[in-house]
C-alpha cells in the first residue's frame, strides 16, 4: 500500500497508540512522538487497572461513558487477537460486594445500573455468591454480579501493541519532548494531520483540564483465588480488587483531586490494604509487589473531549476510562480524518474549536 498522507501523533499512552493503530490500518503514514522511553514509560496508562467496566462505572460517571464503553467492548477481543494474543484478557463480568454498614450503598449501586440498562446486574444471595466466587462467600452476605464486563493487563497490552505496530511500519520516536504542536506541524516537521494525545501534560494549553490522583497497589497472594474484578462499596470512593495472572491482584484506586504524582501516602496505603484484608483474610499473608501513582486527566463533567481545529485533533480527559473508551474514540478520530460519516460522535464530546 502506498502511504502518502502523513499524520503525527503526540503521546504514546493508550489513546495515542490506539489512534496510531486505527490510522495505520486505514493506510496512513504514522509517526508517534513520545517524551519518555517506551520501555520505561510512566504514562498514566501504565498505572491503570484497565477494567473494561461500562456498567459498574455508571456509579460514578455519565451514561454516555457506558454507551461509548459498550462499543469499545466489541473492539477489545479483536485488538487482543490481532496485537496481543498472549496478553491477559478476561471477560467474566464483575462482582460488587458491601459490608453490612454499606448495604444501602449496594442497593443504590444496583438501582443506578438498572435505571440505565436492565438485565446486566443480578442480585446474588450468599449461596449464589459462594457459587460465583467461592472465596467471597465466607465474608459477604451476598452481592451483585455484573455481566458483560472485561479486563486486560493494560501495560502489557500497550507494550505489545506498540511493538507490533513498529514491526508493521509505524514510526515511534521516543524520548523526545515536543514543545511546539500546531496545525499540521510538530516541531519543524509538517504533516497532513496532527493528533494531540498528551494527556495531563496538555494542561497548560487546555485550562479546563484537571488532574485526579489515583493510587494503586499490586500484591501477590498465593492463598487467594478470585477470578473476577471485585468492587467493594466504600464511603469515599469505589475500591476494587482486580485479578491478574499468577496470583497477583491490583488493589485500587484512590480518587483524589490533585495534580500530585508523589509516592503513595501512608493513609491511602492503609486504606487500600485494610480493604483488601477485609475482603479475604488470605490477603494478610500476601506480598506487596508495587505501589503506583497515576494522575488521570479529566474535565469538569468527567467526560472526554475530541477537539477539532482545522487539521489538528486533540483528544483528552479520559479520566477513569482510558482503556474503556479509547478504541471507540480512536474510531471517531479515523472517521473525521478519513472524512467518513462522523454523525455518531456525541456533541457533548466533539467540539469544533481551537485545541488551545
Ligand atoms: C490508578 C488508576 C487506575 C485506572 N484504572 C482504569 C481502569 O480500570 N479502566 C480504564 O479504562 N481506565 C483506568 N484508568 C484511567 C486511564 O489510565 C487513563 O484514562 C488513560 O491512561 C489516559 O490515557 P491517555 O493516553 O489520554 O494519557 P497518558 O496515558 O497520560 O498518555 C499521554 C502520553 O503523552 C506523553 N506526552 C505528554 N506530553 C508530551 C510531549 N510534550 N511530547 C511527547 N510526549 C508527551 C506522555 O509521556 C504519555 O506517554 C486508571 C487510571 C489510574 C491512575
The main β sheet shows up as:
9 strands, mixed
Any idea what the radius of gyration is? 20 Å
Q: Percentage of helical residues?
A: 25-40%
Count all strands and give the number. 22
pLDDT < 50 runs, ≥5 residues: none
Helix-and-strand structural type = alpha/beta
Shape: globular
Mean pLDDT: 93
Count of DSSP H/I helices: 7
Give the strand content: 25-35%
Give the N-to-C terminal Cα separation: 35 Å
Say which molecules are bound, naming each kind only once.
flavin-adenine dinucleotide
Order of helices and strands: EHEEHEEHEHEEHEEEEEEEEEEHEEEHE
Commentary on this structure:
The chain has 356 residues and is α/β, with parallel strands linked by helices. The chain is built from seven helices and 22 strands. The protein has helices at 14-25, 63-83, 103-116, 126-132, 154-168, 266-279, 322-337; strands spanning 6-10, 29-33, 51-52, 89-90, 94-97, 121-125, 142-146, 150-152, 171-173, 181-182, 185-186, 189-190, 193-196, 210-220, 230-232, 239-244, 248-252, 256-257, 287-298, 305-309, 312-316, 350-351. Strand 1, helix 1 (14-25) and strand 2 form a beta-alpha-beta unit. The mean pLDDT is 93. The site of flavin-adenine dinucleotide has 41 residues, from helix 1, strand 14, strand 19 and helix 7.
Q: What characteristics describe this protein?
A:
binds flavin-adenine dinucleotide; alpha/beta; 28% helix
